[in-house]
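can u do me a favor
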């Protein structure tokens, strides 16, 4: 018998260890969304507008939420852009591109994806609108809610990262 065969037979003759039982798996319970129910929430409604409308319904008389008509139109009448999924602090400006009649900013998101932005694009979680792009910074106007529930404008800067 060769050394290999002796080693294999030695290993095979030793008793095996005891295995622990498998953990119990809980069965998956599917959720069925029923849109026909009375007062069922609309899954396609923007959550921040829904919060505002709930606050308006729960008060009597006119509500002064601080929103101007222009701000209200910005919130309600547009599709969200890709960079609105990220905190403004997590985005980095890394450069600019100058064209004949426009200037673009180059921004990197936390996932490492490079984005090209221009004046008028929205960025960050607080409805931030890009108002100015320069070689060393991007200026952003945000619509934020304070502790009293009123909305207001706040300016933010995204400096060029060297």
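np, heres the sequence
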């Amino acid at each position: 018998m060769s050394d290999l065969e002796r080693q294999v037979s030695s290993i095979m003759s030793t008793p095996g260890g005891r295995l622990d039982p498998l953990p119990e798996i809980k069965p998956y319970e599917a959720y069925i969304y029923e849109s026909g129910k009375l007062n069922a929430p609309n899954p396609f409604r923007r959550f921040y507008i829904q919060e505002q409308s709930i606050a308006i319904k729960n008060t009597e008389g006119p509500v002064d939420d601080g929103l101007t008509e222009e701000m209200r139109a910005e919130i309600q009448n547009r599709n969200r852009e890709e960079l609105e999924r990220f905190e403004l602090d997590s985005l980095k400006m890394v450069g600019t591109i100058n064209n004949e009649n426009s200037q673009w900013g180059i921004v990197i998101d936390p996932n490492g994806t490079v984005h090209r932005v221009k004046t008028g694009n929205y960025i960050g979680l607080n409805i931030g609108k890009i108002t100015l792009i320069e070689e060393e910074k991007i200026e952003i106007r945000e619509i934020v809610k304070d502790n009293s529930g009123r909305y207001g404008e706040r300016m933010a800067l995204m400096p060029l990262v060297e």
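Residues 49-58 have pLDDT under 50 and may be disordered. hope that helps!!
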